[in-house]
Amino acid sequence: MKVQLGTPSEYRKRSRILFMLASTALASCIVAPFIGPTPIQWDTVFDSTRPFNENIDAQIFFIARLPRALAGALVGGALASAGVVLQALLRNPLATPFTLGVSSGASLGALLVIVLGTPIAISALPVVPLASFIGALSAVCIVYGLSRYRRRGLSTTVLLLAGVTLNSLFSAIIMFVQFLADPTQTFQAVRYLMGNLNVSGYSPILWSLPLLIVASCVFAWLPRSLNLLSIGTESAASRGVDVTRTQRMAFLSASLATGAAVSLGGPIGFVGIVVPHMVRLMVGADHRVVLPASAFMGAAFLVICDVAARTLMAPQELPVGVITAMLGGPFFLWMLIRKV
Amino acid sequence: MRYQSFQIIRTLTLATIVTVLFSQNWIAAQTGSQAQTPNRIVTIVPAVTEMLFAVGAGPHVVGVSNFARYPQAVQRLPRVGALLNPNIERILSLGPDLAILYGSQTDAIEQLTGAGIEVLTYRHGGITDAMEVLKELGRRTGRAFEANKIVANIQAALSAITDRVSGQDRPRVLLVVGREPDTIRNLYASGGIGFLHDMIVAAGGENVFGNILKEAVQPTAEALLALQPEVIVEIQAEGMMSVRQSPRHQNVWQALSAIPAVRTGRVHLLAGNDLVVPGPRLAAGTGRLARILHPNAF
Fold first, then answer.
1. Residue to test with chain A: of B45, B211, B225, most A Cβ within 10 A
2. What does pTM read for this prediction?
3. Domains of chain A as residue ranges with CATH
4. What is the predicted ipTM?
5. Which stretches of A46-155 are DSSP H helices?
6. Residue pLDDT, tens place only, B122-131
């Protein structure tokens, strides 16, 4: 069955917005590395005759700036689309990628490594992202297991309650770990919770990329079912949607994307809730548009926020989570007032 | 919910840490009554504990911080909590006549003064501030002579180090206080105020963040590359479980191989509380730093 995206004029408008957002995301990734507080010589940066080890300008461009822009785009895109999927799955506009316990699981994993240290050196893998991914995975398993317990389907109510409870539980353990740590470690831990895209290299990005690709493939398959699901599970089922399977795929893919994003950039708040709503104000509620549009907008938004994070107070770094809320909050309120 | 509770932890912890780390005052009496020489002293500040033992008031110390490790004699003393978790009940049960707390522990200060215990408050500062604290502790414990002698010794040792390295070029130094394990993410370095900055200067180095008037600075990777430090020193407290083995911590820096210090292999890890506790061992810590900055002068 071919489904039209509204009337031809709406279709054109939505494609235009989608194209515009995609170009903005791409442009922000390309332009971001060229912006920074240090003046660098562009002919030196791209001079391949100089050894990279001695080329400060090239390292500033290729290590200090470019990976951050790429990581920002991936994290922003992943969090925003996970937000869309979870808001549809839970039929709750306040749902965020962090609602179901994934990020507090990830934070707990990361904090345990920061505070307790690692007794064994795992070569090649940076320990904090790995630990946070394991933490995220455990949280997902617990929540998913609980929501399926003694039921044939997947209960979104149990999912939501289990997630929220797990969040509180993990937060309490996080506070306890912080309490046990000495002040310098506590400071590190607090700083971790504000998010930081300073990845300084491409290996963390490459590690998270396969996970994000898998999640995106599932996301691509979801929108039509999500549209029907957001009307109600029964009417969706009557129109041929395999409700349980859709819910399961939605939950697992959103969790995977969130886990990968948090292990890459830490728990960066605000992107996952506000970007989807901004997009809905622009394009309406059709997930076939909202989902890709949110991914692009989330990517562009976080890349821009990260440029602000590393330039506003240079040579010091501002927590990117502070910027997302400080830039995004007022902007969203302005959009809200303008639309109402 | 989660976000809110994180924000609360963030705000509270940051507020406490910021007040402790980023303020300049040193030590002040909370009660007006200048009682006679205290007999039972509780100190929640490891630096002050070291100072009390140095001036010879050690036998009067009856309670110390959870993080106090020096001198050896503190190992068997009761622990009364630390910056974020002072144990008032424990402190009261020890029956002290003088308690030395961090200036930011306002609730604890109020409770103890309310219980009629004299309280001195402490804040971190530079080397000069630490010397003033030492002298004040000497006065309060009736050991002004010893305290002044120790201060004079420390100052003499510091100027001996400074004299020794004075003819040399001053290398640009990045002093790393902490970072995320295995990466340079969330790295904190010494800014232009505080005892660590003073130690870099006394050891004959130039702090790359000397112009930022904060104790701790979180720089971007770009800043680390652009400022081109010639020596990187990472300091670490004793007994921390997150010990970073040398080859591993060298590898972390290879990501920024254009930094002169990394290229020339001058990345060092210094573990020891003489570098993180601004107490009587300041000169020893400064000496270790100077040996790294100027290996030829020693």
1. B225
2. 0.82
3. 70-339 (1.10.3470.10)
4. 0.80
5. 56-59, 66-89, 102-116, 127-148
6. 888 889 899 9
